[in-house]
Write a structure and sequence with these properties.
The chain is an alpha+beta fold. It contains 15 helices and 23 strands. The chain has 3 domains: 4-121, Uridine Diphospho-n-acetylenolpyruvylglucosamine Reductase, domain 2 (2-Layer Sandwich); 125-238, 2-Layer Sandwich (Uridine Diphospho-n-acetylenolpyruvylglucosamine Reductase, domain 3); 241-445, FAD-linked oxidases, C-terminal domain (Vanillyl-alcohol Oxidase, Chain A, domain 3, 3-Layer(aba) Sandwich). The strands form 5 sheets. Strands 19-16-18-17-21-22-20-23 form an 8-stranded antiparallel sheet. It has a 5-stranded mixed sheet with strand order 1-5-6-8-7, with helices on both faces. It starts with a strand and ends in a 15-residue tail after the last helix.
Length: 484
Amino acid sequence: MSSTTSRRSFLISLAAGAVVVGFDPLGRTWVSQAVATTPLVDVPPLDGELLTDETSLRNAADDFGHIVHRAPVAVLKPGSVDDIVTMVRFCNAHAIPVAARGQGHSTFGQPQVENGLVVDMSTLSAVHHIGSNRAVVDAGAVWSSLLTASLAEHKAPPVLADFLELSVGGTLSVGGIGGTTHRRGFQVDNVLELEVVTGAGRLVTCSPKRNRGLFEAVLAGLGQCALIVRATVRLVPATEQARTYLLPYTDLATFTADQRRVIADGRFDYVEGQVLPGQAGGWSFVLEAAIYFSPPAVPDDARLLAGLRYEPGAEQISDQSYFDFQNRLAPTVEFLKSIGVWFLPHPWLNVFLPGSAVDGYVSGVLAELTAADVNGPVLLYPFRPARLSRPMLQVPDEPVAFILGLLRTAPESPSVIEAMIASNRTLFERARDRGGKQYPIGSVPFSPSDWVEHFAGRYRKLVAAKDRYDPNRILTPGQGIFPP
């Protein structure tokens, strides 16, 4: 029996050993040859492949979190956008759930779909065009590929996540935050046009001037109304080098005050920050900043550091190429893969905090946690919500907000993982009660009522968009926004 279906039959090996040969539209079930008594619906012709082998299904039932496992019945590796249109139409007609998977970097089963179809977007990964101020790129392309192509023309995306091996479609579905967000917004704020496949199986081009309602429902819309298949994103001039500044602090309030100061006066191009275990116990802090430049011009260190209250004499200043700075996590990721840590469970927590609450909230969290409770990086840095323009992206309504990321790594112990997830929920609720929001890429149990509260005044618009563009509610059920 072949494990690849590309034209007529849809073959699936069941746990009991039976073979599924088609879909029974009356019984709304997959039917094995041994019991087939009704005419079956054949899968339409495709340019790519439908994979039903055990390895493909197992991989699609996992993600970077390695916590949630929902097994699909097939994985589509599209050979064209038409394949996605065809199969979404097929699934819509037969009420089969569908989800797109980019690099599978979510941590709580968001791109998984039980007994449905997973669309592996990695086979559509071309960079189609680099222009003077924009790029056209497939949703399955990773940002490192786009950056490499754009730098050849001395251009770059204005906002990049710290890890460049994420797919374009994946980050645009959730938001896409980075060190330049305080200046440029999220990645979704720098999208000029999209091509999407709606839940009804329609290929639609949308932008701020064309099908705007769909455009706004898709960007940071968590895959609820359409699957992104191609994006036109803004580009800006790129420099040759980046100078980075790692500035240490021992006091949280001083650290966050300086972070606020540098995003207010705009002295740095890039601003992030980390919370680190202190040498004598407790926690310390590092303001991470960068300025982009091209020789012979060089940054003025004295001006850039003036007035900042970091611990003198412990700062680190270094230069590297613009690409190497943006891709600086690559060596660390390769090391983590080599020792197996990359493949352990990752019950992450990411929350947006209002600036008025950040010091009290973070100090309370750090008082309860040890480095062993996280066993991974802790991120803390500010941005300005006024720079954001996409309505589905939910952040605190204050002049300054912060993202706190507890990028946890857990041993393969169910009890430890369960305890970390319970802690995430508790910490989320504490943030919510202070006006915070979840950045929905992490591992926080969320009910449909939680999502109503999350989207607040935008929830009705999301429901209306869902009813219009995905009326059978087949898309991306792994987010758990709408009851099954």
